[in-house]
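Convert to structure. Protein one:
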Amino acid sequence: MEFEESGIGEECGVFGCVAAGEWPTQLEVAQILTLGLVALQHRGQESAGIVTCNGGSPPTYTVHKGMGLVSSAFPPEALLKLRYGNLGICHTRYSTTGISELQNCQPFVVDTLHGKIAVAHNGELVNAHALRKKVMRHGVGLSTSSDSELITQLLALTPPMEELDAPDWVARIKNLMTETPTSYSLLVMFKDVIYAVRDPYGNRPLCIGRLVPISKLHSSGAGEEDTEGWVVSSESCSFQSIGARYYREVLPGEIVQISRHGVKSLSVVPRPEGDLPAFCIFEYVYFARPDSIFEGQMVYTVRQRCGRQLAIEAPTDADVVSTVPESATPAALGYAQQSGLPYIEVLCKNRYVGRTFIQPNTRLRQLGVAKKFGALTDNFAGKRVVLIDDSIVRGNTISPIIKLLKEAGATEVHIRVASPPIRFPCYMGINIPTKEELIANKPEFQDIAGYIGADSVQYLTVEGLVSAVQEGIASLQNDKISSNDRSSKRVGHCTACLTGKYPVELEW
């Protein structure tokens, strides 16, 4: 919960759709894109944008962008404007680089030597400063402060050996990937195809789904001939609401071409020898929706395992287990299962307050805390409560909740945190407070229980978190990937915000 109140947030979500079969399509591509963004709304609420294309020769691109929630950014008249697209990409934004203005709203569309391209990006480039200088030395001006515009301009630059009349987008994307190792998941739309790209470390998520007839969505009888279209998304949670089946993940370093004819893996760019993948472990802890699938496992199940591991590492002499709604609920259930204590609800959440973490203004976040919860007194009066949370970042939001529970009759409140202490900033697409603001780096952390008013506080260890995440990872073998790069199938996760060990050398 405290991620919400502390200003920690994901950078954004990306989504794309390509209609299969004959064009113009009967598939409502603009509606599918909008519903995909709604399902990714938890990844960013500052702005949203959609670009559709008819895929013709020459292609016609239609753009609509707006500030705020998807529901307000795309009124019915905007969808009418986008309705003739046979393919499209879209984006919902939470800024980590660049200020919150419409000019920073994605996707970006630029002219290249061979026509327009549209680009949507999730992540943050670790060497953005050096890359901005390089682009400007080529005489290219940048109109925004966003990393995503920088990526778009780098893709527009012609790579060596490219023929003047034949754009080689795989070469251009590879050129980009050699320029910057992480962190990005990209959608690049050119004419009648979408290229889906993950950086070689796989730091940000990206997966593919297949649109099938609603009548065959939950049956095993849907074959390739039933494919109505293809979708690609930051998270698989967006697939259910649009009638798509999960197909597979885009692998670290992979470039996938998605067209009306299907999905084709074009290349896998390897990491430096010996480097493991570095998928952001906090996608599991908090950022992703619990019904999303990463690395062959559901996020909800991983969070339950974190709770069970926490009960093993930090048992408590108490009467009941509960949670700070809602992201920590699976961990609380896992803790209760492992400990044998009953799970009950002690807090009632006002669902109409909104996710206060998405408000960049600190004062607005602080005002949101007091209005968010009510105590379910009858459930815990006279009892010792173990309260499971997903984080304690600054420490200034859990304290009022503990006070609320004790004033409502809890004899003891023990805090158990289903993730390790955050000690370091993230430079790869997650908005984390400065090192000085983090409670784990303050003197108060030595007696954090006394500081926040709890009877005890214990965190899940880094080793426990990694173990819980990696325990259920299925093999990434996939017959459709024609690559000999075995390193892409090895398991690894980024824990830099916990350990200070970044997957790549940072450049400033």
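Protein two, convert as well:
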Amino acid sequence: MRLPSSIFVSVSLFTAETTAALYLSSTYRSAGDQIWQGLTLLFTLVPSVLVQLTLTFIHRDLSRDRPLVLLLHILQLGPVVRCLEAFCIYGSVGRVEEPYVSIIRKKQMPRRGQSEEVERQVGQAEGKLFTHRAAFARTSVIQAFLGSAPQLTLQLYICVLQRGVSVGRGTLMVISLLSIVYGALRCNILAIKIKYDDYEVDVRPMAYVCIFLWRSFEIATRVVVLVLFSSVLQLWVLPVVLLNFLVFFLYPWILFWQSHSPFPENIEKTLTRVGTTIVLCLLTFLYAGINMFCWSAVQVKLNDPDLINKSQNWYRMAVYYMMRFVENASLLLLWYIYKTDFYKFFCAPLLVLQLLVAYAIAIFFMLVFYQFCHPCRRLFSSSMTQGLWNCSSLLCLMCNSASPQNRPMGVAPRPAKSPQPPNDEAPDSASDSADDMPNETSYDMLSDTIYENANELGHNICGGINGDVNHSASCND
């Protein structure tokens, strides 16, 4: 049985960030900055409450007689107690013989086109540890994108306004960045667990390194871009943030409405329809918060029993990164146009170039992960390179088909002219002008070919590239 190290890391980041935020808020209070103090506490206490509710919901404490645990959750000490409980369970393994065990079956990764199924016994202690790991994986994502990401953005914005970095603020920013990157990493691993739950795979260290570098460059670049833009156009940053948030919040609901599926009732038996709606709204709220700063590896699908889209959608990923790159470039351009005298000490063009290159580096490590380091890449219905190439080809064909003047006109070859008889008859002007015009039959055939290729590419992307892979895997923490 593996050491619950992921639980220890999650609790350590949660405790360190909460402590640093409380200390920094006290310094803001001493300096008379009540607005910064209130926002710092807001981005600390709200995710902390959500973490306590998530742990209580997953462990079903409301239906069990555990008043002391509920009291500790109210005091915001739930993660610490859960961590101690997990290590106590780990330490008691092997000392007491367990009367009941479960048998699980997992498939091995296919080799030479064949996959064997193996059986393994799981005791009660290991099952409880699995529940603890699953709970802390979800709380790490909540803490990262509903607490640490807004906190990092706020503190960096304060640094720009005050033109300095204090020790307490710098410490909180570093811890927040680590918490966000770790939450994004747990989100990637959680997506692999859900999608490939039938397979037993091992996530190698190089995969963790690629995910860490990918998410570090992506999130750091996004936060810096938002802070630079908000420092010169304070009134416009709110519409930009709200537009991003509403698009990703409403997108799963629009897909659910278009599918005409019944309202999901199997989330929790004890929940009413109102409670189920609140849980789904919180889930889409978290989904929007993740996509505000980086690509969410877990794609919400409300008409699925697991509420997760288990297909590998290269097209959606390609569109997201192209649109996000364009948005970052546009915000940096507006910052460059309206920058204040404070930035005269910086080389503004070089800073813009560095941020764009950093985002490109993040995309590079993302490609490396999916192409070479993903533990389940053998189960992909199509390679990522082929999928992204076909996506770009489809976009080019759609652009060409949308502009009729850009369509290639097929011109039939002109037949060789026979020598004219030595008579004084006038040439047939109608015949000559018809030769100079494009051949309608050639144009129709070529146009049909264009649309047939577009339909074929669209069919490949919807079927093969989106990769409805209905497999899943359990990965190491």
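Strands lie at 101-108, 117-123, 199-200, 473-474. The longest helix spans residues 124-162.
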